[in-house]
Design goal:
The protein is α/β, with parallel strands linked by helices and 461 residues long. A six-stranded mixed beta sheet has the order 1-4-5-6-2-3, covered by helices on one side. Helix 7 packs parallel to helix 8, helix 8 packs parallel to helix 11 and helix 12 packs parallel to helix 14. The termini are far apart.
């Protein structure tokens, strides 16, 4: 038995209550996967193939730059893969693709031509690829692709609208130390790819019109408005109004079609109220990392413009507007252990993160997390190409579920169904590791106003 196989099997044995699917998924997210040429598309035109290609919707989520990816840069890998079967009898598991040519995990065709995931040369699961949606084959009146303007992820569940492709936290003294949003913008522009910096509202509406027309099965159930932080103005608008005007336009054109979510800074309560008035129903004011010292080191722009204590106070205040259940701040799981400043042991890192989970969950707010991918152009990625230990990620799933149960809370809305074999959230395993709610209505089947405070308006202002 080789090293990586031994590692995952030993963790499966030590933590039998964590789904096996989640152990493998976290390892793929933290360390990436390689692709054999047989697993890549046969065309550089992403709209004509049979497989939904990786859209690079906000960050690169790769372990190499585009020039270093070789064939995987020219013949795009899929947006996500789905794992099933194999010696671990995996239930259906959706995994975001993070390309790493040096990974021990490799997606390739077997002797019979079917794709599989191979670890240390042994096939450990079958691999399914996302089919090209009909709406990706259409173009806007100006010729732009739907994938460029409104890509979908999480196996089609979420329309991801990165309407501002760069961040105004800029340079070494302001950029978050794990984030490559600005470099991702630069590398796509350098490669001559279409990558619109500020997406016009009308283009977003045109793309959504195409998605709505072709998505007759209503697979897409939510949209996320996001982009870089705005510290001054973009197109004459401050952050709340810049992102909010997209929501207002979407809700006016497609009332109730999707659950509206926004990822933005932790803003003052009056700005948060404007988000809600514009039609947003779920607010993601991401706190990134819990530890005070690490927040100051890793998020210098956020510390300078807002500050950690104020950021947390604003998160709590926003529950008065959206309802605690609809405030879902993200953290980047794994950066707690980044050298040289992070925690030296898994015990210390888990204890710190657990403190943050208890803080928010004690107020009824359920955070979620993205598994850290150490992108090579970021300061933390350069110093920590292997990311955090897999044990940290497995134990985080354990403490996350335990804390949720401690405070009597359920999985957050807007992420599809929880449970192994059912979850579609692809950039971490927290939804895969939670219990399925077969005896309860799916949260995303409830009206978009579910969980709003009494007296709040049910439509956009």
């Amino acid at each position: 038995m080789t090293g990586r196989t031994h590692l995952i099997e030993s963790l499966m044995e030590r933590f039998p209550h964590i789904p096996r699917e989640a152990v493998i998924k976290e390892d793929l997210l933290r360390g990436g996967m390689a692709f054999d040429d047989s697993a890549l598309s046969d065309t550089t035109n992403e709209a004509t193939g049979g497989i939904k290609p990786k859209s690079y919707f906000i960050f690169s989520f790769d372990h190499r730059t585009l020039p270093e990816l070789g064939a995987a840069a020219l013949r795009r890998p899929p947006e996500e893969i789905v794992l099933t079967g194999g010696p671990y009898e995996l239930r259906r598991t959706v995994v975001s693709v993070r390309v790493n040519p040096a990974s021990p995990y490799r997606v390739q065709a077997g002797p019979d031509g079917t794709l599989g995931l191979y670890l240390d040369g042994r096939r450990i699961s079958d691999v399914g690829l996302p089919p090209m949606p009909d709406y990706y084959r259409e173009t806007l009146p100006n010729g732009k692709s739907v994938m460029e303007v409104a890509p979908t992820i999480q196996w089609g569940y979420l329309v991801y609208l990165t309407v501002f492709r760069v961040c105004q936290y800029f340079g070494a003294k302001e950029e978050c130390q794990y984030c490559d949003i600005n470099h991702n913008w630069r590398q796509h522009k350098a490669a001559g790819r279409p990558y619109t910096g500020v997406k016009p509202v009308e283009e977003v509406l045109e793309a959504l019109e195409i998605i709505d027309r072709y998505d007759t099965a209503r697979a897409s159930q939510a949209y996320t408005l996001t982009g870089g932080a705005i510290t001054s103005k973009v197109a004459g608008h401050t952050e709340a109004d810049f992102y909010g005007r997209y929501a207002q336009a979407i809700e006016e054109r497609f009332p109730g079609r999707w659950i509206g979510k926004v990822v933005a800074q932790a803003l003052p309560k009056a700005d948060v109220q404007r988000f809600h008035d514009y039609g947003i129903r779920i607010y993601h004011p991401n706190f990134e990392v819990w530890d005070e010292r690490l927040f100051q080191l890793y998020c210098p722009g956020k510390e300078r413009y807002v500050g950690r204590a104020e950021w947390h106070r604003r998160i709590l205040d926003s529950a008065d507007v959206f309802g605690a259940r609809n405030v879902i701040p993200n953290f980047v799981a794994g950066v707690e252990m980044a050298t040289p400043d992070g925690f030296a042991t898994v015990d210390e890192a888990i204890a710190s993160t657990a403190e943050g989970l208890r803080f928010f969950m004690s107020h009824g707010i359920v955070p979620r997390f993205t598994t850290w991918c150490p992108e090579p152009t970021t300061p933390l990625g350069k110093l920590n190409p292997e990311g955090a230990p897999l044990e940290y990620h497995v134990r985080l799933l354990e403490v996350y579920r335990a804390t949720l149960e401690e405070y009597g809370l359920a999985s957050p809305p807007g992420y599809g169904p929880p449970g192994p074999g059912r979850a579609v959230f692809s950039v971490s395993s927290f939804m895969d590791s939670l219990p399925a709610m077969d005896d309860l209505p799916a949260m995303d089947d409830l009206p978009a106003t579910d969980g709003l405070p009494a007296g709040e308006p049910e439509t956009a202002a």
